[in-house]
Each structure stands twice: as structure tokens, then as C-alpha cells.
Amino acid sequence: MEKHTKYKLIEIEVPNGLNDREIELVNSINRQYEREDFFIEFDSSKIMVHINQLNLDKFMDSISDFYCDESSIFHQIYDRIVSMGGYGIKDGKRIFVDYDKERKVTHRKVKEGRRSKFFYAKDSGFSKAQNAFPKQYLNKIICDDSEKFLKLLPDNCVDLTFTSPPYNFGLDYENNDDSDHWEKYFDKLFSIFKECIRVTKYGGRIIVNVQPLFSDCIPSHHIISNFFLKNKMLWKGEILWEKNNYNCKYTAWGSWRSPSSPYLKYTWEFLEIFCKGDLIKKGDKDKIDITADEFKQWVVAKWNIAPERKMKEYGHPAMFPEHLVERALKLFSYRGDIILDPFNGVGTTTAVAHRLSRNYIGIDISKEYCNKAIERMEN
Ligand SMILES: C[S@@+](CC[C@H](N)C(=O)[O-])C[C@H]1O[C@@H](n2cnc3c(N)ncnc32)[C@H](O)[C@@H]1O
After folding, report:
1. Cα 362 to middle of ligand 1, angstroms
2. Which residue owns the Cα nearest ligand 1 atom 19?
3. Which long-range contacts (CB under 8 A, 24 or more apart) does 235-239 make?
4. How far is CA 43 from the centre of its chain?
């Protein structure tokens, strides 16, 4: 161990030791990084990762051949490092020790008052009176236009909305081609989101998974966030859903290695999280089902989750993976809560809500997708 450098230590059991390829990669990593920043040791039964500061993108590049295999030791090391969090980034490296050396804010409360924390959500007029969810719609998959159906629900009766709207990318859904003029698209979307806000309980949440259409220069995640802020919802934060999908193009035609029009590569999507009236969601402690380890890992707002692989099987072009929903539901809702998905597709949200002992309501305009969602629930 280095004398003057402090490290955080990650230890992972490897009952069968490392194989030759893994040893070769560990040695190569140790050659690539300054020893006072980061190094890895191993013996016949465990691997020990010493970390002071690290450029995580560079580390991902070093291990990318192994990362796809979730059981790989390097996949585990990466996830453990990410979930450990850090104290900020300096020169591209995330700092993991010596928090005390960081500058601290004095008179925090006074300064917060001067800035007027979440000023945009003041005077919302949201009622604190919660309403019962209509029994006839509880734990149902509804085939309808959400804009129309949501009007049947009372104000303040849903705990959490988790959804992924059509992105207007031109995907072939069962009964529309997902390609409207952007203004028309946002008008429709916002009519539905207005209803979602209305039916959300005071203290409830809305989480929207969104992927902007970069090629149209439409920052949908900003436009959608702006809509919720204008409608007095509190912005709780943003999660980057890292899909590690490197299958995207680099440039517009004819501009390789030229500043003329490089494409920025986005291997992730966004989850934007909003709260109605209060950042704190009250609930019964007995109804919490997230473990300490899950909590530690999942509050780090970059989630590495592979895209859904069963889209062909379900016949839907834009499903999200069950694990994405599982994390969101366990982190942001209690068992027994009522979960809404107004763009329920083939029912990923509702299936996971049911599995995790939440109540649900899923709405989709396509009969075919709704039938699949019901079938999925029955199975
Ligand atoms: C991105 S997909 C959601 C997929 C879903 N997350 C899943 O895992 O299956 C968007 C869905 O919105 C549905 N949709 C489009 N317009 C709608 C509307 N006005 N009301 C309800 N559903 C609608 C589409 O049929 C499509 O299934």
C-alpha cells in the first residue's frame, strides 16, 4: 500500500481466482494508471481495487471487452466504483477520498433563501386533499387515448407515474407511424401530461423516460422538463439511463474527422423526475422494499442497464427493460402505491408494479399492445 496516498478499497471475492485473460487485463490496467490514483491487486480468492481518483470513461474503455458480460469481475468492479459515488470531478477524474479538502459552503441557509429555492414552483395552488382511486379502474389495463381516459379519474389519486411517451422518431407502432409535426406532437403530449399532473397525489411523482431526436435538433428532454416546471412541478433530478449502445453514427455524410458536422454520440437516455407540491413522499416504513445496497447503488444517478432484448418477441418497437422500472419503483414508491403508465405499451410498467406489490393502471391506445400487456400479467 502506498505510504502517503489514501485509497478507498473495494474487495470482491473470486473463489476460483483470475484466469489468464483477466490477469493480463489487471496488469495492463496497472500500467495505464498512476499508482497514486488507482491500482488493482489480487490473490487466489479475492481482488482488491484501490481507488483515490479515476477517470471513469477511460476505465470503461479499458474494460469494455469484458463489460457486456454481467458476471465478469470487471463489470462488477465498474458497477461498485460507480455506486460508491465520489466528491466531484477534477481534470476528468472522479475524486473518491479527501472530501474534507473540498471547499465548503458557509451560511448555506441564508444563501439558499437569497436564491429562492425552486422559486418556479411557488404558489402552485395544488390541493393537499388526496382522493381515493376509483375501484373499477384499479389494477386494470385500459385501451383508450390517455387524454380522454384520464379525465375520468379524480384529482390527487395516483402516487407515481412512470412512463415513456412515443418519441416522435418515426417508429412503426401498431396503429400510428410516430411522426407528427413537432408542435402537434408536443400539444398532444402536454394535454396528457396535464392530466397526469392533475391526477397525481400531493407529494406524488412523475418520471418520464425520454430520448431527444438529435438529428431534428429537438431537445425533447428540455422541452418536456420546461413544461413540468411551468406547471409548478418540482424538478427532483435526472437519471442517465446508460444503455452502452455504441451503435450510432459519427458524422453527417462527408464530414468524417472534420469540424463541419460531427455527431455527438449519446449512448444513454434520460429519466426526468418531478414532484407535485413536496419533494418528500410520506409512506409507511413497513412498505419500503429497497435494500441498503440497492439504495446506495441506485441513488447514483447513472444507471447502467442494457436495452430490452425481447422487443421482437412482444412485437413492440420501443419497450423499456423491466429492471429500469424495478429501480424506479423501489427507489421512488412504496409497496401498495398506485402506479400509472399513460403510454403503457405491452405493459412493462404494469407487470413490474404488479410483481413488486404495487397497484397499477396502464393505458395504451393500441388494442394489440393492451392484449399483450394483459397476457403478460396473466402469465
Ligand atoms: C414508447 S411506447 C411505450 C412502451 C412501454 N414503455 C413498454 O415497455 O411496452 C409508447 C406507447 O404509447 C402509446 N400511445 C401513443 N399515443 C397514445 C395515446 N394518445 N394514449 C395512450 N397511448 C398512446 C403507443 O401505442 C405506444 O405503445
Report:
1. 10
2. 145
3. 235/118, 235/272, 235/273, 235/274, 236/205, 236/273, 236/274, 236/275, 236/279, 237/273, 237/301, 238/270, 238/271, 238/272, 238/273, 238/301, 239/270, 239/271, 239/273, 239/301, 239/302, 239/303
4. 36
343 CB within 6 A, ligand 1: yes
Taking only the tens of pLDDT, the chain with its 379 residues reads 445 678 999 999 999 999 999 999 999 999 999 999 999 999 999 999 999 999 999 999 999 888 888 889 999 999 999 888 787 888 889 988 876 565 667 888 888 889 998 999 999 999 999 999 999 999 999 999 999 999 999 999 999 999 999 988 666 666 666 677 899 999 999 999 999 999 999 999 999 999 888 888 899 999 999 999 999 999 999 999 999 876 555 555 666 778 887 778 888 999 999 999 999 999 999 999 999 989 989 999 999 999 888 888 888 888 999 999 999 999 999 999 999 999 999 999 999 999 999 999 999 999 999 999 999 988 8
Half-sphere exposure of 360 (CA within 13 A, CB side): 28
Q: Are 332 and 273 in contact (CB under 8 A)?
A: yes
- Please answer whether residues 219 and 281 qualify as being in contact, where contact means their C-beta atoms are separated by less than 8 angstroms: no
Joined grid coordinates for residue 41: 491487486
d(CA 226, CA 203): 19
pTM, two decimals, is 0.76
Cell numbers linked to 7: 485509497
Q: For residue 237, report the distance from its CA to the centre of ligand 1, in Å.
A: 24
CA angle 123, 109, 95 (to 5 degrees): 115
Q: Catalogue all structural domains in the chain, each as residue range(s) with its CATH number.
A: 8-100 (no CATH), 125-378 (3.40.50.150)
Question: In terms of Cα–Cα distance, which of 47, 74, 44 is closest to 61?
Answer: 74
